[in-house]
Amino acid sequence: MRETRRGFISALAVAGATSLAGCLGELDLQTDERPDLDVKTLREVEALGSPAFPATTPAPVSPTFLEASKARAEELLDSVPATMDSAAVPNEAVRNIYAEAYEDATRRLDRASSEATPFETLRSLRSARGSAAMAKGTYEAAVGELTEDDVRGMAGSIRSDIESFSLSHRYLGDDPGTALVAHADVEDFLAAAARYLDRVGETGRYDRSAPRVGEMVDAVESSRASLEGARHLADRHRDTLSNPRDFGDLFQESASSLTALVADYRGEYPDTHRPLLDDFDTDLDDTPAKILLMETFVHMHFGVQQARDELRAGSPANSLLGAHAAERHRRAFEAARAAVRNDEYVSLDAATRVRDEKLAGLEALETADSTRSSSALTRRALTDVASRIDRGDSYLERSLANDTYRSARNALGEYAFVVFTAREAPGVSAWILGALRARLGDDDA
Question: Which parts of the chain sit beneath pLDDT 50?
């Protein structure tokens, strides 16, 4: 889930975590007659590892640009000492906050050097620059060299640059699917630039203090890095085009129609998952089936919300990604419902069942990625889906010894979620791309 999907992430953090955690807690009340599962086998399931689906972008990120961004973070950090002198800054709390900020910036810089793709490095370096700016701003404010008003002055020119880029940005491309993903990334970085800058005027963790100035400088630097990233991605994507066309109207109109369509589909279901679960003859409480059905159902809802939120925010490419999420989870839910009616996932009697489901999830991801119809759009969806393997593993890692059945049940539910959603990703990509190309053909007629 990406940082700019505000409505989606907010809903997932609040509604999803609350409802799912509550339901899993309800499941955990039923402990009678649970089977004994082999812990050694479950440990081996976790040790199978995770799929390699790191975040990528169609735009070829320049190594020179990444080096410049890294140099900027290092410059910020090198301009201040590793520790504050107690004589210069008597306030111990400020010194401790500064030490934490400096250490955090160093850690983020190290992390950026080990990312799997240039796109992930780009995002990590933005974070490192913000953390380094936090340290620098805190130090300079503590020794009397920087004030909140000074930082507000820095923010003004960046806000103007954000507005200028937003107005001038064109959705250029030669293939609508590739352009969709490329411009979704541009939208993300641009939205992040505005969001970070808004934090300058908001109340932070620290009020009227040197660390508060540091927070503000962090926000300004993160905004600057985001805007630079948006420009770079747009420029680099444009440089790859042999016959560029402006897809702005195409994306806007398609996002509007497909958002309405997935919202209509969502309207055919109850508002909550409970009536859907009660429709089965089998009691699904304390089963992997319940987790699978709840996850696919809830994420269908979140996909619709993302599509709506991004459309309202003027980000049609990300709105289309939201429509993709809504439809693939709807299809996954329907397939999962059919499987449960066929008595699949309604019990967990052996640890080998968890192993087999994880392997099926890994296979489903690879199959979807290698299909002839695979595209940048499918790859982006699979990056999101693949992260759920890690979530399944985390259940086995965190609580296997304390509650073996619960850990195995939850992990199996997550792996099954991957199986069903990965299978649907290529078809839903074709659904999105078919709609785009059909509308594009009408425009050319």
Answer: 1-19, 21-30, 445
Query: Which residue is associated with the tokens 């339901």?
Result: 23
Residue pLDDT, tens place only, 167-208? 999 999 999 999 999 999 999 999 999 999 999 988 778 877
Residue 124 in contact with residue 70, Cβ under 8 Å?
A: no
Residue 8: the pLDDT is: 40
Which pTM value belongs to this model?
A: 0.90
Q: How do 172-173 and 245-246 pair as beta strands?
A: antiparallel
3-state SS track over the chain: CCCCCHHHHHHHHHHHHHHHHHHHHHHCCCCCCCCCCCHHHHHHHHHCCCCCCCCCCCCCCCHHHHHHHHHHHHHHHHCCCCCCCCCCCCCHHHHHHHHHHHHHHHHHHHHHCCCCCHHHHHHHHHHHHHHHHHHHHHHHHHCCCCCHHHHHHHHHHHHHHHHHHHHHCCCEECCHHHHHHHHHHHHHHHHHHHHHHHHHHCCCCCCCCHHHHHHHHHHHHHHHHHHHHHHHHHHHHHHCCCCCEECHHHHHHHHHHHHHHHHHHHHCCCCCCHHHHHCCCCCCCCCHHHHHHHHHHHHHHHHHHHHHHHHHCCCHHHHHHHHHHHHHHHHHHHHHHHHHHCCCCCCCCCHHHHHHHHHHHHHHHHHHHHCCCCCHHHHHHHHHHHHHHHHHHHHHHHHCCCCHHHHHHHHHHHHHHHHHHHHHHHHHHHHHHHHHHHHHHHHHC
Q: pLDDT digits over 306-338, tens only? A: 999 999 999 999 999 999 999 999 999 999 999
- Other beta carbons within 10 Å of 34: 15
pLDDT given for residue 374 in this prediction: 66
